[in-house]
Amino acid sequence: MHDLAIISGTSNTKLATNICEKLGIDAVNVITSNYGNGECRVEINDNVRNKDVFVIQSASDKINDHLMELLLILDALKRSSIYRVTVVMPCMPYARSDRKVKSRVPISAKLVADLIQTAGADRFVTAELHAPQIAGFFNIPVDNLYTSNIFLDKIRENHPNNNICIVAPDAGSVKVVKKYAGRLDCDVAMIYKNRSAPGMIKEMSLIGNVANANCIVVDDMADTCLTLSRAADLLINCGAKSVTAYCTHPVLSGDGVSNINKSQVQKLFVTNTIDNPNILKYNSKNKIEILDSSALFAEAIKCIHEEKSLAHLFNEV
Predict the structure, then answer these.
(1) 90 vs 15, 123, 130, CA distance in Å?
(2) Three-state SS for 208?
(3) Is the pTM of this model over 0.90?
(4) pLDDT in tens, 117-149
(5) DSSP alpha helices (H): ranges in the chain?
(6) Looking at residue 252, what DSSP letter applies?
(7) Across-strand partners of 54?
(8) What domains can be seen in the chain, in order of their start residue?
(9) Model pLDDT for residues 51-74, shown as the tens digit of each residue
């Protein structure tokens, strides 16, 4: 069997360190820096010849810089006689642009998939794609992992009496939410949103009964959290006892953390797929809690390296 090697980009070194600890190996020594004009420079200082290499690089607050860094790492590896390279991208950038919604706009997720493949990736691992069909943009194997088991354990811990209602934040989330409800044996509700423009909600209404229930909103990412704040107001006004949210990717751009602090959301649980400094900087009310996802990615890496099935990691909820 080819030796396992882990390379960490600079987007989420904490997660990469946790993954390496669980796998019992050290990361490959890589130097990344920038020239005066902003161009990225990458140099791999350890021998990776004939190794099975996994590159960990996620989305972040410097998405474009880290995407370019990933492409350069892949190019350097392909020129270093490696056996295989797998990109482990816990949060895929540009995944929200997954279709052509009107004339003269790009399908950005497809472009990112093409760039990663052209740079040399043999396999792609991610978590909670914004739209599962994005996997079809790649012509290499794609493993889209689910963080549902991480969230389910926390939900059961926080609500042992099970007086809960799982809420879909939009129509596209209903399928996932119904699976959560099936595992938790609880009710389901959905929030209908009518948008006036991208990111702008004209009206919001509730479908279902949430009276006297502890509502749990499940989504793939938390961005500005304005929608989540409005959803919490709606649920409380409809009789909910409390509102808690579980979102895999803590994008939390702009005033995202502040919006959560000012909202009626009791707690927002996220994973560490993104190393977002805003959480530690502005989470003054401790409303945001980070759950570790490193065990999930370490298990996926181990299975791929040992040529074992990943089927047990794809039990959606």
Answers:
(1) 10, 13, 12
(2) coil
(3) yes
(4) 999 999 999 999 999 999 999 999 999 999 999
(5) 13-23, 63-78, 108-119, 148-158, 174-184, 226-237, 256-262, 277-282, 294-305
(6) -
(7) 6, 86
(8) 4-146+295-314 (3.40.50.2020), 148-292 (3.40.50.2020)
(9) 999 999 998 888 999 999 999 999
